Amino acid sequence: MNKYLKYIILILGITLLVFGFYILKSSTDQTGIYGVLPYIFIGLGCVLFAQGIGEIISNKALSEEHKKRIAIEKHDERNLFISNYAKAKAYSFMTYAYGALLISFAIMGMQLRYILLLAFTYLLVVGYEIYSRIKLEKEM
Q1: Same structural domain for residues 11 and 54?
Q2: 72 in any annotated domain
Q3: 131 and 85 within one domain
Q4: What is the pLDDT of residue 30?
Q5: 2 phi, psi to nearest 5 deg
Q6: Could you report the per-residue pLDDT of 20-48, keeping only the tens digit for each?
Q7: Which among 3, 95, 109, 136 is most buried, taking Cβ atoms within 10 Å?
Q8: What's the pTM value of the predicted model, to 2 decimals?
Q9: 92 with 131, same domain?
Q10: How many domains does the structure of the chain reveal?
Q11: Last residue of a domain, which of 16, 37, 61?
């Protein structure tokens, strides 16, 4: 990551946090987008602040030797294989769990728009899997 990008992310996170709390405390109209917008700013601010602080601390705490060793381990073929295999297992489990959740919501009688939203998301994920499989089969 760029040397100054860490600090820019940190400052942007703090700015979003402060702005979100300012809107939350000063806004009298809590309907529509004004009811949600402060919480979105606060959430994004927390994420950016944590990312910036984490990058700064990890760069200061690690020596150059440790950074090189971590980079080598990160790009090691065995570790990449293990990571990809774990992701594939998690995706397989997620497919079944998401399908079961979708069916249970339908049985419980949830509103149709929520079930259709979940079904569309489920089909989008499965469709992306098919697209990726076709793309990879053409390359290999």
Answers
A1: yes
A2: no
A3: yes
A4: 75
A5: -55, 150
A6: 999 888 877 777 777 888 899 999 999 99
A7: 95
A8: 0.55
A9: yes
A10: 2
A11: 61
CA atoms within 13 A on the CB side of 68: 3
User: What single string gives the DSSP state of each residue in 45-101?
Assistant: HHHHHHHHHHHHHHHHHS-HHHHHHHHHHHT-HHHHHHHHHHHHHHHHHHHHHHHHH
Same domain? 38 vs 82: no
Q: How far is CA 85 from CA 92, 102, 128, in A?
A: 11, 26, 18
Express as a percent the part of the chain with pLDDT over 90. 31
């690690």: which residue's tokens?
62
Inter-residue contact 45 to 17 (CB < 8 Å): yes
* Residue 132: both structure tokens together: 């990726």
- Residue 71 placed within a domain: no
Residue 57 lies inside a defined structural domain of this protein? yes
Q: Which domain holds residue 128?
A: 77-139
Contact 9, 55 (CB under 8 A): yes
Please tell me the predicted confidence (pLDDT) of residue 8.
93
Secondary structure of residue 32 in the 3-state scheme: coil
Single-letter code of the amino acid located at 18: V
Q: Output the six-digit token pair for 37.
A: 């917008």
* pLDDT over 70, % of the chain: 99
